[in-house]
Specification:
The complex is a heterodimer.
Chain A: H1 7-10, H2 13-33, H3 48-68, H4 72-76, H5 78-95, E1 97-99, E2 102-108, E3 111-113, H6 115-132, H7 141-160, H8 164-168, H9 174-179, H10 184-202, H11 205-223, H12 227-251, H13 256-278, H14 282-306, H15 310-319, H16 330-341, H17 369-401, H18 406-430, H19 448-466
Antiparallel strand pairs in A: 1-2, 2-3
Helix pairs in contact in A: 2-3, 2-17, 3-19, 5-6, 5-7, 6-7, 6-18, 6-19, 10-14, 11-12, 11-14, 12-13, 13-14, 16-17, 17-18, 18-19
Chain B: H1 4-34, E1 46-52, E2 59-60, E3 66-78, H2 88-95, H3 99-112, E4 118-124, H4 126-135, E5 142-151, H5 158-161, E6 164-166, H6 169-174, E7 183-185, H7 188-192, H8 194-198, E8 202-208, E9 214-217, E10 233-235, H9 239-248, E11 254-260, E12 265-272, H10 285-294, H11 303-306, H12 316-326, E13 340-343, E14 346-349, H13 359-365, H14 368-381, H15 387-399, H16 422-429, H17 452-463, E15 467-468, E16 474-477, E17 491-492, H18 500-512, E18 530-536, E19 544-551, E20 558-564, H19 574-587, H20 593-601
Parallel strand pairs in B: 2-10
Antiparallel strand pairs in B: 1-8, 2-3, 3-4, 3-5, 6-7, 8-9, 10-16, 11-12, 11-20, 13-14, 15-17, 18-19, 19-20
Helix pairs in contact in B: 9-19, 12-14, 13-18, 14-15
Classes of the chains: A mainly alpha, B alpha+beta.
The complex binds zinc ion (ZN).
The site of zinc ion has 6 residues of chain B, from α14.
């Protein structure tokens, strides 16, 4: 059963207000960031601020178009859109234009367009479509593989375009999956992996080995029926380490890491034999987790040394505090912190910032636009922006939860995830709390592609929300 | 899903969002309100970022002789926003400029930016700099910046070294490193090795008060960055030889390229006419550049890499080699010649020489008829597949010597010459194409075009009996142990090495043979020079004189190509020039002084038209 709804009445005006406030604040801050006295009109089309105005007007057109389209359309065309987007990603990889080392742009004349920005939107729709399909069980092995492919294929293409930042955004869909009931174990596994990734790059291998063994022991301790068995197991393991260590001391001269690994192998063999004999499958899981973690650590190390490019390495290194070299990769972050810090409590005032204007903050109108907020509007301004974003995110969660269709709810959470990731990484990198991976601040940063993509992302959800009463289930 | 689970999870998600917001706001509070480290009150203290320009790497020749060094220069900079009333008369007096010029320049700088430093006057003298430095406090908004100028002790090898110019919009767009006003290698080695030569810019951050006085380093210099000096580069060029060659070609148009066959190292790369590289360094560059640009002798044109000439008879060894490889001719094969090659109405003339000749003698006497026979045999009989296939095979063999394609040397703006594909002739002659129609290809005329570099490489390939190394100009980069692997690979031609011996013998006889040999004047006792003359017909004027050579015959040390425009026969100028170059390189001096003088002083610059 369907009924006609009144769009004007049903649309969420609070979200729209926040959206408009953010877009306008963004525009004014772009104006301030690249202010040029010779072309001092904010409407000057030869300057970035003039162009941003065009992008904003175009975004409003996009909003109108989205509102005019039937809400059913989005669920219906989610999959075709997804595949069209994949096609575009392949095309841009082959025929795209390189800008700042990332082959992710189509250039037609002076007009540039980045299909990767829209890939997030299409993936969000397709994910919502998949998870909301009838009788879909998130924990079936086959389904986990499908979800993984749906998310990681576009992310992979974007990674190939050399746009690491945009590819990492896809990790944020874990929030959607978490909300939709993905087992907490998976999420914890993800956190464990992230932790190992960071530790593999920061601390010596020996500590990581010890940590992995400890985690396995704790897991065993939590899940085993008989905890005395676990304690026996731990002592058994220590005994094996001791024996091998002694043997090594007497006969060989391997490193302590080899000794520990050898002990782990010996101990695992014993566990597996016991598992087979006593038909206790959980022992397999323990062995699996342990060796999974070991190989993941090794893989991380390999990936870091052999796959990542030098500048990506140094950025990660800097973030992890390995390279506390302010002359190197941290330079930009330092500049950015100075700009923000110099704003003080209430800022220097509109157009009065000097740090950003002197060109000492990189990408001051795109990735580092938050610096201008910090410098000219001070702590008051930065807090206001963060509060606005938080209110927006919470409002979207509220809206998502009131949906009757699971498609709309899941899509709503996808919007939240993407926005959340962009916001924490973008703002985080300007204040030294996140790696400098160069992704825009939603609605704020200069650029047509990103503004339109975020606008489409958000307003499709608002369109779905406005029609939430149409569909009765 | 209306269970309790999602509800809890929603709270977890909201919790995470709020937690991160609190962390960020706390961090911002510390950064903006608590921590005083980042405060620079906008009204009283201004940060000045002074770029530290790295010293550009020096360039040496193969024997560590300095070819390019640096000299300090000072730019006067201005930041519009920091300008204050100042005594313009005093200012103009110190700088020795007039007031209108100052006003104009300030206007220009303003258009560039009000906030960023821009160059007001480039390269003020060291003396002015010293005076200005003392009086700087009177002129808020101005400051000086030191950078370096390129200097050339010998004023040679302008085209090899290239020049350094200011970056343009494109450079800036392409690479963020460059800022307006920076310098970048614009041609030659300066361009192709820019990454090594330029080093890395550094920055010093100072706090400056309203009176333009430096109050000290900002944040105790913690965010300063030292400039990393550029790396020095050793070229494969022999500066002595280069200088000598430029002298020989001083009053001529053309090019000399010499290569060490055993490495592919370019020993000299001469383009004539050339210019003094110092002209394109520093303040007068723009003016001089325009002057050189409108010069009718085109001194900016790098003939060695970009002039595409017909190879003339220097191509005959190629025809011989391909004939041997495809089996249509043997070293003993003889053909007669009655002042040319005559078939029906077709006639291609030759000069008087003994007849008939075998392959070796045909090179020695440079017989046109012989090569018409060989070429037609290749196209008609090398296989049954027909002329298109046979020509295509021929082209493939020619291109395996580096003709008709880029050699990919470590140098910008190389051109690839022309060896037309079969489709070209199919289109030109239609179905009736037969081997007679483009038989002039046999003797290096017709559509064939090659560059002097390719000819030198061809000579080096014969010297090596069948392979070459990609020619290159850089021998060593400071701090870089190995030369790029692409320069250490033997690139074999598609002609087997056994076929080279008779051709080498022929080229030996060209110089060392009895009467009738075409280049006996290139003979230097005990140097065993092998060579081949060429004369390219020039429809626009006097013929071009060409010579390729290598020496000694066994274990060759140098291979060379000489191209002299409008100089008549290959024997007349190109052959002696090549022999002087070889003699100079191998023995250090040239014995035949009177001959050397005669050739050196011959002025061929304005011989455009035949009489
Ligand atoms: Zn003849």
């Amino acid at each position: 059963m369907r009924r006609k709804i009144n769009l004007y009445k049903n649309i969420d005006w609070l979200t729209i207000t926040i959206y408009l406030v953010l877009v306008l604040m963004g525009w004014f801050n772009i104006y301030a960031a690249v202010y040029n006295e010779e072309y001092n009109s904010i409407f000057d089309l030869s300057q970035k601020y003039g162009k941003q105005m065009i992008w904003i007007i175009a975004a409003i057109v996009i909003i109108v178009v989205i509102m005019l389209i039937e809400s059913r359309f989005y669920a219906f065309f989610a999959n075709p859109l997804y595949f069209i987007m994949l096609g575009l990603l392949i095309t841009v990889l082959l025929f795209g234009t390189e800008v700042n080392g990332a082959r992710s742009w189509f250039a037609i004349g002076s007009f540039r367009f980045q299909p990767g920005e829209f890939a997030k939107f299409a993936t969000a729709l397709a994910l919502a479509r998949l998870l909301s399909s009838h009788n879909f069980k998130i924990h079936e092995f086959k389904n986990i593989l499908i979800i993984g492919a749906l998310i990681f294929v576009p992310a992979g293409f974007i990674l190939l375009q050399n746009d690491t930042g945009s590819a990492l955004v896809y990790a944020s869909f874990i929030i959607v999956l978490f909300r939709e009931g993905l087992s907490a174990a998976f999420v914890l596994l993800g956190v464990y992996a992230a932790l190992l990734f960071i530790l593999a790059l920061t601390i010596p291998l020996i500590y990581i080995l010890i940590l992995i063994f400890l985690v396995s022991a704790v897991v065993a301790f939590i899940y085993f029926h008989d905890r005395r068995d676990v304690i026996k197991g731990v002592f058994g393991f220590l005994l094996i380490i001791g024996l091998i260590f002694l043997a090594n001391l007497l006969f060989f001269d391997f490193s302590i890491i080899i000794v520990l690994l050898a002990a782990a192998v010996v101990f695992s063999v014993i566990l597996i034999i016991r598992a087979v004999v006593f038909k206790y499958r959980f022992l397999f899981a323990i062995v699996g987790i342990t060796f999974g973690a070991l190989s993941f650590t090794y893989f991380t190390d390999y990936f870091f040394e052999n796959v990542l490019e030098e500048h990506q390495k140094s950025r990660i290194n800097h973030l992890l505090g390995i390279e506390s070299d302010p002359l190197g990769a941290g330079y930009n972050v330092n500049q950015s912190k100075i700009a923000i810090g110099s704003g003080g409590l209430s800022g220097k005032g509109f157009l009065q910032g000097t740090q950003t204007k002197y060109d000492f903050v990189p990408e001051q109108s795109t990735d580092f636009i938050f610096c201008t907020v910090g410098e000219e509007w001070g702590f008051v301004g930065t807090t206001l922006v963060i509060v606005l974003f938080v209110v927006l995110l919470l409002r979207l969660i509220f809206l998502a939860e009131r949906q009757r269709s699971s498609f709309s709810r899941i899509y709503g959470y996808a919007v939240v995830s993407i926005l959340f990731f962009h916001i924490i990484v973008n703002i985080g990198m300007t204040i030294g709390l996140a790696p400098v991976i160069g992704i825009p601040l939603p609605f704020f940063s200069y650029g047509g592609s990103s503004l339109w993509a975020f606008t489409a992302l958000l307003f499709v959800f608002l369109r779905l929300d406005a029609s939430r009463l149409e569909l009765l289930r | 899903m209306e269970s309790n689970l999602p509800n809890n999870r929603r709270i977890v998600i909201i919790g995470i969002i709020l937690l991160i917001a609190v962390i960020y706001i706390t961090k911002l509070f510390t950064l903006q309100v608590v921590d005083n480290k980042y405060k620079t009150s906008a009204s009283s203290n201004v940060l000045r970022y002074v770029t530290q320009y790295p010293v550009r790497g020096l360039i040496y020749d193969r024997n560590n002789k300095l070819m390019v060094y640096n000299e300090a220069a000072y730019d006067l900079m201005v930041i519009q926003k920091q300008l204050d009333a100042f005594d313009t008369a005093d200012f103009c007096k110190i700088l020795d400029i007039d007031k209108d010029f100052l006003i104009e320049s300030l206007k220009d700088a303003k258009i560039y930016s009000r906030y960023k430093p821009s160059v007001l006057i480039k390269q003020i003298s060291a003396k002015t700099y010293a005076i200005l430095q003392e009086q700087m406090y009177k002129f808020p908004g101005f400051f000086t910046q030191t950078r370096t100028l390129r200097k050339y002790p010998d004023s040679i090898a302008a085209h090899v070294l290239g020049y350094v110019g200011e970056v343009n919009e494109k450079n800036i767009e392409k690479e963020k490193y460059y800022k307006s006003g920076d310098y970048i290698g614009a041609s030659g080695i300066e361009k192709s090795y820019e990454k090594y030569l330029r080093g890395e810019k550094g920055v010093n951050v100072f706090m400056v008060d309203v009176h333009n006085r430096i109050k000290g380093s900002y944040d105790e210099g913690r965010i300063d960055r030292e400039a990393v000096p550029g790396k020095n580069i050793s070229l494969t060029i022999d500066a002595e030889l280069q200088k000598y060659g430029e002298k020989l070609m001083g009053k001529k148009k053309g090019s000399i390229v010499a290569i060490e066959p055993s490495t592919g190292e370019i020993l000299c790369m001469i383009t004539a006419p050339t210019y003094n590289p110092g002209l394109l360094s520093g303040r007068p560059r723009a003016k001089n550049f325009r002057k050189l640009q409108i010069d009718t002798l085109k001194p900016l044109f790098n003939r060695a890499l970009q002039a595409q000439y017909p190879p003339g008879s220097t191509f005959k060894p190629m025809t011989a080699l391909i004939g041997l490889q495809t089996g249509v001719v043997k070293p003993t094969t003889k053909y007669g010649c009655q002042y040319g090659y005559h078939v029906g109405n077709f006639s291609l003339g030759c000069h008087g020489h003994p007849s008939p000749l075998n392959l070796i003698e045909s090179i020695q006497h440079s017989c046109n008829a012989y090569y018409c026979h060989v070429y037609r045999n290749i196209l008609d009989y090398s296989s049954d597949a027909g002329i298109v296939a046979n020509y295509t095979k021929w082209r493939e063999l020619v291109m395996s010597f580096g003709y008709g394609k880029l050699l990919e040397i470590d140098f910008p703006f190389e051109l690839k010459g022309l060896v037309p594909p079969a489709s070209y002739f199919e289109k030109l002659y239609g179905n009736g194409w037969n081997s007679l129609m483009n038989v002039s290809m046999a003797i290096g005329q017709g559509e064939l075009l090659v560059t002097p570099l390719q000819m030198a490489n061809f000579s080096a390939t014969i010297a090596n009996r069948g392979y070459y190394y990609t020619p290159h100009l850089v021998k060593d980069i400071q701090g870089d142990d190995e030369i790029a692997p692409k320069y250490t690979v033997k690139r074999y031609t598609k002609v087997d090495s056994q076929y080279f011996e008779p051709v080498v013998q022929g080229m030996y006889d060209v110089v060392q043979g009895g009467p009738g040999s075409t280049a006996r004047n290139a003979r230097v006792d005990s140097l065993d020079i092998c060579g081949k003359t060429g004369t390219a017909e020039n429809p626009h004027g006097e013929n071009h004189s060409i010579f390729i050579a290598f020496a000694p015959k066994d274990n060759p040390k140098i291979a060379i190509s000489v191209y002299v425009e409008n100089a008549g026969y290959g024997t007349t100028y190109a052959a002696p020039i090549a022999s002087f170059m070889i003699e100079k390189y191998l023995t250090g001096k040239v014995k035949r002084k009177w001959y050397e003088n005669y050739i050196m002083n011959a002025n061929l610059l304005n011989v455009e038209k035949k009489d």
